[in-house]
Design a protein that fits this description.
The chain has about 200 residues and is of the alpha+beta class. It is about 45% helix and about 20% strand. The strands form 2 sheets. It has a 6-stranded antiparallel beta sheet. The protein has a two-stranded antiparallel ribbon with strand order 1-2.
Length: about 200
């Protein structure tokens, strides 16, 4: 039977069945749209499906369009469709209400659509750009995560200094001990112990 697996809880949901989870259905989210907004929604969905392989699913109060990650989503409202397009840049255009960073590599560009005639260039160009860049931007987001912290340089330098000082100290102590032994031997050769004959000679 037609249906889908819930993206969040993995439960199988029959087509048209309401699902009490983070997800719902496209039909439930678009049921109350006006005729103009429904036409705009259908044209928007048809345009996106022409880009290639992807997943389209309802989640909470939005309809998501995703490859490995979501590249845009639609949030149906009473008087317009709020479209959020994830690009690697902020778009400066009358159609874009605002832009805000959504991650280190992605910018969310928010658009309001009220009629099917608005689903055309440049909006469709931005959607295609988001589709094509989705995997690249996702990879950049992973690559820009902070690497593990390395040991503090100061600590490493202090450790190196202590090791060097220890080596120098050990070398100095060894050299001093060698010198003392040499001096002791030298004194032994130059000042032999007094004999009995020497002592008698001194008394005379």
């Amino acid at each position: 039977m037609a249906g889908r697996e819930c993206y969040h809880c993995r439960q199988w949901v029959e087509e048209g069945e309401a699902h009490d989870c983070w997800t719902t259905t496209e039909a439930a989210l678009t049921a109350d749209l006006s005729e103009d907004l429904r036409d705009a929604w259908e044209r928007l969905r048809d345009t996106a499906t022409e880009f290639g392989d992807q997943r389209i699913y309802a989640s909470h109060n939005s309809i998501m369009f995703s490859r490995k990650s979501c590249y845009f989503f639609v949030r149906p409202k009473k008087s317009f469709l709020e479209v959020c397009v994830f690009l690697g840049r902020s778009v400066k255009a009358p159609q874009v209400r605002r832009s805000e960073p959504s991650s280190k590599s992605k910018v969310a560009n928010l658009i309001q659509i009220r009629h099917r005639d608005e689903v055309e260039r440049p909006i469709t160009d931005w959607l295609r750009e988001a589709y094509e860049q989705s995997e690249v931007l996702g990879a950049k987001a992973v690559a820009t995560k902070s690497p593990p912290k390395s040991p503090v340089k100061g600590s490493a330098k202090r450790s190196a200094k202590r090791s060097s000082a220890t080596r120098r100290g050990g070398s100095s102590a060894s050299a001093k001990a060698t010198a003392d032994r040499r001096n002791s031997k030298s004194r032994g050769r130059s000042d032999p112990p007094e004999t009995a004959r020497t002592k008698r000679a001194k008394r005379k």
